[in-house]
Amino acid sequence: MTEAGDIRRGIYEDDSLLTVCSPPFAGLFKLWDSKRAGRTYPARSDFDPLEMKPWLGRLTLLDVLSGPPVDFRYRLIGTKTVEQYSLDLTGKRFTEACYIGTPAEAQAAMTEFVRIGKVRYRNDPVEDMRGFASMRERIYLPLAEDGRTIDMILCYQQSRILVHPASRVR
After folding, report:
1. Which CATH number fits domain 4-167: 2.30.30.30, 3.30.70.100, 3.30.450.20, 3.40.50.150?
2. Could you give the CA distance from residue 34 to residue 67 in angstroms, rounded to a whole number?
3. pTM over 0.85
4. Could you report the per-residue pLDDT of 37-87, keeping only the tens digit for each?
5. What is the DSSP letter of 66?
6. Is pLDDT of 156 > 80?
7. d(Cα 104, Cα 106) in Å, to the nearest integer?
8. What are the residue ranges spanned by the domains of the chain?
9. In what side-by-side order are the strands of the sheet with 71-77?
């Protein structure tokens, strides 16, 4: 779990994220940026799994499925993410399940991400499907085999629990 409490909350959609994010996020963004090689987006095939080792446990790779409506499929989910939620959604579509919010909310957020086509870094509180309130730091990086049309999304996240559901007064 990250100690993200000192990191500024908010959403950043350009390299200004480097002024607020923690080192693992900055490192992944810099690697992604270096792989673009003059293109708008790098391709998944530009990344060597060995160079991704520092992030693997918390990486999620989403396939962008053409629509309408656009949908997303969990292609890869890091072991630490699966452990955190006690649930492996690999192979599932957003319309079937998600870790945070409702499937409709997740699908709408990712559809907007693809429409805008920018890197997105977020650090803000969320409540997961089990009722845990967490501070969640995450980055979404678009990938495109042709360098222009987003066909995958590389996500990395870390969170720290703020409130356990059992501790809430009802």
Report:
1. 3.30.450.20
2. 31
3. no
4. 999 999 999 999 999 999 999 999 999 998 777 889 999 999 998 998 888
5. P
6. yes
7. 6
8. 4-167
9. 10-12, 120-127, 133-143, 152-163, 59-65, 71-77
